[in-house]
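Researcher: I'm preparing a figure for a lab meeting and need a structural model of a single chain. I don't have an experimental structure, so a prediction will have to do for now. The sequence is pasted below. Please return the structure as tokens so I can convert it later.
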Amino acid sequence: MSMVETEFLVIGAGIGGLSFALRAAEVGKVTVVCKGKLLDSNTAWAQGGISSVLEENLRAEGDTVEKHIQDTLDAGAGLCDEEAVRVLVKEGKETIDDLIARGVCFDEEDGGYSLGKEGGHSERRILHVKDTTGRAIAEALVNTAKAHPNITLLEDHFAIDLVTSSRLGMVTDDRVLGAYVLEKATGKVICFRSDRVVLATGGSGKAYLYTTNPDSATGDGVAMAWRAGAKISNMEFTQFHPTCFYNPGASGVEERSFLVSEAVRGEGGILVDRHGRDFMPDYDERGSLAPRDIVARAIDQEIKKTGANCVYLDVTHKPKGFMKERFPFIYDNLLKYGLDAEKDPIPVVPAAHYQCGGVLTDLHGKTTIRGLYAVGEVACTGFHGANRLASNSLLEANAIARRAFDEIMRLYPPNKGTMPAPEIAPWNYGDLTPPDELVNIYHNWDEVRRTMWDYVSIVRTENRLRRAAFRLRNLRMEVRDFYWGYRVNYETLELRNLVAVASLMIDCAQMRKESRGLHYMLEYPEKVDLQKKDSILRRF
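Model: Understood. Here is the structure written out token by token.
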């Protein structure tokens, strides 16, 4: 096993990881490891935009920072950390200024930014780059990072596990020492030694059968932090995006998960049933612009009530050319499936979209392990509460990355040098023979995702959660056998993380005996004031 020293180790290359890396590179050497390609992140897949109240923007007249704060608190269903909400929303301008300085060009109109509106927002405050905002942000950050001499970007490097002092037997000094990383091309394991490690691995949408997320979203950061002994919080709150394209002729599950941005509803799209009836006013006075948890449950109930396969998002009343101009990416992709959104309603279903819980951190991204920080979707700062307000995630990731860098510079500046550490042992794993049938790994992968979709989805019951927990216990044992009994490969490592994260979701869901935000229990349909607290788990 080779050892590589680096002053800062960043695991993940989305907006959070690269925003941090670009700051840290001004004071030291930064290594960024990415399990796939640099643009395979949740950031790059984000269509909608980034929310921020900018007073100098002429089209923001009537909006205020306080309104944005209240919309965020309302969407979070009473579980937001109000301090986190106030701090991060107020730092919105810094986030926009930072992204513009990195090369992001947000759409403009009438002397100011072109602002969109999405579900849960009381005003138009969403900055965007057409309907590929995340891609524009990711490309700008990647290009800037590539040009920086102090940043080393390593694609196709899979972080296996964190190295901590407690892992090496130093139980009185729980701090991070680095991470074991698999170089996928060679199969070699490298230990990156660093006292300053930032998790920016994104979410866990691939734990579900239907998701808007890229294949990389397997909850790796949460699983690694959990195994290292960090506190994990609120994993029961998985946000389901209400409007993903439903293709009845699809040959595989992935084809029916193409995201149709919430911004389409913000620009006047209406959810209707197969008869063309606008059903959302039956569920919420805000209609199709209600927060995502309400809309997703409404669609789920309509589908179950009517026996239909989907509902429809109707934009046929908009002027000709509107969709192609405002949402070219969505419009062109729908055309590939033979659907012209200007003439036909778009068939849609909900799909797993965003992880609102994660590794528990403070407002500086600091976890419960010294020297380990988490930013972006992998982290739980308290900002999103029980349900994320649309387009708040890119704002949070950038803001926490800035704050994490400031905190690390205060506590662990590179000029203090690296803290003394014991010799790090090689990564310990099974190494007998390759699996006889790799198909068994793929079968387990599929079983995890189907179990989560069937039993831990939009509407839950105690019985469904018990069944899911039973199935996941068996799967964990099978994955453990693969891990220790065979020469471990990338697929086994990723499946190990997926099973771990799915189990955490179920454990947290079983702890919460109420319905709040994204967690809806048929036995407990109401919020309970005594349960207005975070679900926290820690491995001992």
